[in-house]
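Q: My labmate handed me this sequence with no annotations at all. I'd like to see what the chain might look like in three dimensions before we decide whether it's worth expressing. Could you predict it?
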Amino acid sequence: MIILLALSVLLITYILSQIQKPHNYPPGPAFIPVIGHFYKIKSLSKALGGQHHAFSHLANIFNTNIVGLKFGNDLTVIVLSYPIIKRVLTEEVFEGRPDNFFMRLRSMGTRKGITGTDGELWNTQRNFVVKHLRNLGLGKQVMSTHIKNEVGNLLKILPNSGTQIRKLLAPSIINIFWDITSGSRIKGNDPRIEKLIELLNARSKAFDMSGGILNIFPWLRFVAPKRCGYDLIWRMNRELNALFMEIIEEHYKSYAADKNDDLIYIYIEQIRNDQPTFSNDQLAMVLLDLFIAGSQTTSTSLDFAFMMMILRPDIQQKVQSSLDNAFDRNEPIEYCERHRVPYVEAVLLEVLRFFLITPIIGPRRALHETELGGYRIPKNTTILISIASIHKDTSYWKDPEIFKPERFMSEDGKLVPHDNLIPFGLGRRRCLGEVLARNCLFTFFSEVIRNYTITLQPGAEEPSMIPQPGIVLSPKPYLSVFIKRY
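A: Here is what I predict for the chain of 486 residues:
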């Protein structure tokens, strides 16, 4: 009887500890023992069409811009307004990344790379990569030359029969990132590029930013590895790691002390000099971070942009007129000359706002106890950032559900940037590939639209405005026809 009573007391104590919220924690649904809000968010996400919709739904219910949740034992806060999001993105206390099973799984059980790390490792690696990417031409004319070459190759193969443009865009964008990191481009028939595209796409659809049930109960990988998603994620991460290791090994074979014409050679030099935090495994994760940060989101943004040109031929015609008036027919379109076509820039800004390519960006971790919006945020709380909430917020945008490039234009036809449009984030953790991504987005879009009119393949189903869910949202497949203008 005494043992039974003691067990009952322990059970009650445990349950109370699981359901009791920290003092002055942000408002949200009642805590649920053991599993937390996992199934609630999962069911809401399925019903509403995405995790970001589930978070906005809860914010409306509790009349708050900061929602307090719990996944398993992990306190998790969702932020949904520009002032709060800006604080999280720019203040040092929120620069941490969660250190949990799911975050370590992406780097084969360790903490490596740039995106998933923090502290001295993150600081050293990020500064090194940013410095040498600039030295290799990021943001300079040499990078624009690489982009123009890939655009030229794409223009040669655009068919006048139905095609899924994403299948042509992805290799072109990846080749630009491949060039700057490994010093060469991959031929279109190289199986490595097809494999990389396949793995990056599958990875972006395999999980959400909360880490799912596997992050709450890592032991499920031993009893139900396929059902909990572990087998899929582990296989994808292993294959991606093997692909980058193969490239690194090729560089070792051709390495020489005076070779510094790509990022991998420069990084290998640091490894050979026994620099702390530099290793082959770390390099593989850095390469993965760079490809995820730029290539996939850029090709997806272009896919959405071309889809909208099919749905809105009036906007396509205005873009073509703008380009025709600003550039001679045989004059290459340069990113540095984008000020000559403010309407084209406005269209692309509206694509980034309207389509919510990454509705929830990388999670943060509170490095110590702090305050946010008047609420207490305990140390190591995970913060999920809903960019979608501000890009569709009626407080900042008139008619946010309407695609309207003119919102970024003044009455006299000048471009008017908007502080509340932050698709690449803010602060020191701002997207590493932003400059390259913006250049690719502008140059590819402008050259294709100047040279071709895009229409829907006759008899094909009209493109859907409802995207495919995932960490990176993408259009559902559609068939387009490219008709040469001259």
